[in-house]
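Late entry, written up from scratch paper. The run itself happened at the end of the previous shift, but nothing got recorded in the book at the time, so transcribing now.
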Amino acid sequence: MNAEILQDSIDLDSSTIEAVLLDPADPSTFPSSYPFPRLRPTGRASSVNFRTVTLTNAFLSVTFALDLGGRIIRLQDRRTGTDIIEMPKASRPTEGGTRGVIWEHGLEFFIADIPRLTSLASVESIVREPEEPGDPAELTLFELVPGTGMSFQLTWRLPADAALLELEVQIHNRRLESVH
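Output as recorded:
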């Protein structure tokens, strides 16, 4: 079997979240995530559609949620049918984290120890279909890291003939001075 890419979406019953409004007259209400607002669960639920990309070969199936920061939301060993990370049935964000809400399902990526303020946001992506039989399937995710002058590019590669998921990381300094 060759490596393949499927662009799709998933509908999840989701607890909705909302932005906490700032008081411009009181700088103490500005969160550490500024200029991004603090978030909180509303207690209400609705069906939410999230874009996904799945890389598949005879050995593995890996699903990324582009609208949840590009995290891996499903990893399946296709030889045994075992879900190493199960596809979520619902999206239940909980209180916590720098912005006030976290989603504890799947594998989220970080750059060093910097909290990702956009971990529940959409990421830019490019899919690269295999050109020849035996070529890998590729998904590249891009994101500017707010307030840092940095960006990253993650290229996930699934070879056609191995139970292996490769990751190439590129970090770009978009400022003229050094970054510490």
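The longest strand covers residues 39-56.
(Scratch paper discarded after transcription.)
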